[in-house]
Amino acid sequence: MQIKKFDSINVVPFIDIMLVLLVIVLTTATFVAKGIIPVDLPTSKTATPQDDKKNLTITIKENGEILFDKLVVQENNIAQELSKYEVQTPIHINCDKEAKFDLFVSLLDTLEEKEFKNLGIITKKSK
């Protein structure tokens, strides 16, 4: 019996598998949400990626709604809600660029009164 010599490798099955994997990756990537709460963030040239581990994200939406992570909080209950967190808790503030500035200033005043110092303002990196 004579052994056949391979002059070339058939790559068609490999290409088929890679195309199927590409379709799977692209379809699942469209379902991955950037954030749960849609906010149009302002841009900054020095923005850095945020780390979501063990922090509190406070969001001020365009309509004036304030959220602590996913919990809606009334403006007059901010201090009460902050008392549930330790002073060392990192706080990230997402504020829609169309939101009223007085809500943002009011939030910063309350955070200062409660002696929270580990604050970050979240922005989008400009191109």
Could you give the order of the helices and strands? HEEEEHEHEE
CATH C-level of one domain: Alpha Beta
Mean pLDDT: 81
* CATH architecture label of one domain: 2-Layer Sandwich
Short summary:
30% of the residues lie in helices and 18% in strands. With 127 residues, the protein is an alpha/beta fold. It has a domain at 43-125: Nucleotidyltransferase, domain 5 (2-Layer Sandwich).
Walk me through this protein's architecture.
The protein has helices spanning 12-31, 78-82, 101-113; strands at residues 43-44, 56-60, 66-68, 71-73, 91-95, 119-121, 124-125. It has a five-stranded mixed β-sheet, with no helix packed on it. Strands 1-7 form a two-stranded parallel ribbon. The mean pLDDT is 81. 30% of the residues lie in helices and 18% in strands. It is an alpha/beta fold and 127 residues long.
Which labels suit this protein?
alpha/beta; 18% strand; 127 residues; two-stranded parallel ribbon; 5-stranded mixed sheet
Write the layout of secondary structure elements.
Layout: H1 12-31, E1 43-44, E2 56-60, E3 66-68, E4 71-73, H2 78-82, E5 91-95, H3 101-113, E6 119-121, E7 124-125
Parallel strand pairs: 1-7, 2-5, 5-6
Antiparallel strand pairs: 2-3, 3-4
